[in-house]
Amino acid sequence: MTDDKSPFSKHLPPSAGLPRVLVLDERAAAELPPEITPARAAPDGAQFDAIVGYAAPHALEQWLPRLRPGGRLILAGDAAPEVALAALTGAGYIHCLVEEHAGLTLFRGERPPKGSSSERIQFTAGSPLPLGEGLGVREFPFIFLLITQTPNKPAWKLAPDEKLEWRAATVLDPANGRPALLAFTSLVKAVAFMQPAVLAGFLSGINKIGKFRAEAAQAWPLSLIVNPNFDDWRAATLGPPLAVDPQAALTGEE
């Protein structure tokens, strides 16, 4: 049974049985559901579904090896929300969440799954794409976006007065809560994300994959989530779609 007074219970991750929980203090242990017997110490090599406690957002990277891939760090303290969020993302956690609870800040993040390869490109409209981290224009000349096209028919079937509208799929980036484009460096990677996302009901209405030169992203007002793995993002929240210019897309063998 979930205790509404506890900042931790409702944030415990799903698991096949009772979750394995490491507690950092006795107060947190007392606030867990009675059916859970938490661990007070972590033997070498032990991994947990969750680590919970009252703590400051300091040295959060120390807990990553103690979590299983997909496991959650769930802490509460009096830190400012923006400080807690920055600490989580800076330490390498994903699917981060920050909320107020009983006058404290609850902050939660997950250990990335094994083989996670998502990268973010942050830039502002009109600025050059960054070339660091192996993600520059020289390394990937094209960007593929997941598009909902209206009307959904080929160009040769359009009436003279019909105009195509393209809207690209976005998610809310847990690093900052703002929408970011789902972007891919190849058609294969775009399809690999789209197929399970559609089957899982995460995406709907996608009827086209648009191909753009990487430089075209300079005109887009959003950051990019590059080559996301769907398993890493299935719990994410979709953002508002971004209108993009179909005329900027590449066709055929361009």
The rounded distance between the terminal residues' Cα atoms is: 59 Å
Structure classification: alpha+beta
- pLDDT averaged over residues: 82
Number of helices: 4
**Strands, total number:** 12
Question: Can you give the helix content as a percent range?
Answer: 10-25%
Low-confidence segments: 117-138
Shape: elongated
- What is the rounded Rg? 21 Å
Q: How many domains make up the coordinates?
A: 2
Q: Report the order of strands and helices.
A: EHEEHEEEEEEHEEHE
Most strands sheet: 7 strands, mixed
Tell me the strand percentage band: 25-35%
Using brief descriptors, characterize the structure shown.
Rossmann fold, 13% helix, 5-stranded mixed beta sheet, 2 domains, single chain
Characterise the protein shown here.
With 254 residues, the protein is α+β, with helices and mostly antiparallel strands. The chain contains four helices and twelve strands, in the order E-H-E-E-H-E-E-E-E-E-E-H-E-E-H-E. The strands form two sheets. Strands 6, 7, 8, 9, 10, 11 and 12 form a seven-stranded mixed sheet that branches. The chain has a five-stranded mixed sheet with strand order 1-2-3-5-4. A hairpin with a 2-residue loop joins strand 4 (94-101) and strand 5. It is elongated. 32% of the residues are buried.
